[in-house]
């Protein structure tokens, strides 16, 4: 199994890269999606979040009011760290379980962990290959405001809640340029994939010829 860590600042283009890798045959484990699963209705995670942050973070139907919780945590490092303390252990447990399943199904699986906070949570050394999608903070703020309808202050608070661009690129094995079009980004992923497949094939050939 080849384990890849994929990260990048918010709106750098991680999802574009992850979707392309999945199309090419990788098993993608999306940690943002897991962060939603662990607070699904009826989950222990949701109960713990409501206990920690009050019923104001619950919508009328009892589901998590994500914008309300976002307003509480993105301007407050202590609150954010409390939320992460509740959610991250469970997210990691499920991610490890999904990875094990992928490995059991196919020993040659390429498993990609799409993790926004990969560097912040000290996981840079956990992968065979660390891929960082890079686009400068100002461009990412503009994408959040224009593309996702976030207000400028909220967009800047999210960017500020994450590692700086240099911290991420410093630990990257591969840096993808997320500043151009989505097509241009997908083309870089295709190139990377072709290289990985070639390397995996060469490794398999070397093992066969040694046997
Ligand atoms: C606060 C919450 C409810 C806001 O939900 P919302 O639907 O608005 O955002 P969503 O979860 O889709 O995240 C969008 C992006 O925000 C950024 N982000 C999310 N959580 C964090 C965080 N704790 N610190 C910094 N950036 C974050 C990431 O770039 C992510 O891709 C949610 O982000 C959350 O539960 N965060 C804590 C869990 C977490 O750390 N997730 C990210 C990595 S696993
Ligand atoms: N290269 C690009 N050119 C133009 N727009 C882009 C590009 N890459 C991504 N976008 C747009 O920017 C927004 C964010 O992209 P994407 O969802 O891939 O970011 P992300 O890194 O996954 O963010 P998050 O941290 O929120 O998961 C989307 O609306 C997407 O369409």
Notes on the structure:
The chain is α/β, with parallel strands linked by helices and 211 residues long. It has one domain: Rossmann fold (3-Layer(aba) Sandwich), CATH 3.40.50.300. The chain has a 5-stranded parallel β-sheet, with helices on both faces. It has helices spanning 14-24, 31-37, 44-53, 66-73, 77-105, 137-148, 152-160, 165-171, 182-210, and strands at residues 2-8, 27-30, 110-114, 129-134, 174-177. It is globular and about 65 Å long. Bound molecules: dephospho coenzyme A (COD) and adenosine-5'-triphosphate (ATP). Dephospho coenzyme A binds next to helix 2, helix 4 and helix 5. Its EC number is 2.7.1.24. Catalyzes the phosphorylation of the 3'-hydroxyl group of dephosphocoenzyme A to form coenzyme A. Pathway: Cofactor biosynthesis; coenzyme A biosynthesis; CoA from (R)-pantothenate: step 5/5.
């Amino acid at each position: 199994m080849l384990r890849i860590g994929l990260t990048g600042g918010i709106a750098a283009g991680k999802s574009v890269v992850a979707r392309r890798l999945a199309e090419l045959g990788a098993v993608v484990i999306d940690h943002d999606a897991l962060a939603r699963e662990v607070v699904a209705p009826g989950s222990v995670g949701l109960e713990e979040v409501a206990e920690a942050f009050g019923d104001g973070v619950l919508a009328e139907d009892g589901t998590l009011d994500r914008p309300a919780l976002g307003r509480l945590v993105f301007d407050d490092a202590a609150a954010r760290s409390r939320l992460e303390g509740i959610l991250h252990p469970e997210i990691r447990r499920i991610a490890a379980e999904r990875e094990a399943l992928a490995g059991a199904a196919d020993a040659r699986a390429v498993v990609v962990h799409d993790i926004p906070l990969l560097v912040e949570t000290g996981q840079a050394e956990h992968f065979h290959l660390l891929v960082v999608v890079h686009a400068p903070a100002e461009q990412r703020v503009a994408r959040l405001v224009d593309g996702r309808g976030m207000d400028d202050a909220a967009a800047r608070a999210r960017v500020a809640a994450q590692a700086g661009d240099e911290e991420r690129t410093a630990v990257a094995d591969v840096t993808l340029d997320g500043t151009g079009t989505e097509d241009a980004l997908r083309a870089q992923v295709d190139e990377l994939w072709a290289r990985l497949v070639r390397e995996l094939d060469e490794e398999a050939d070397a093992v066969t010829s040694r046997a």
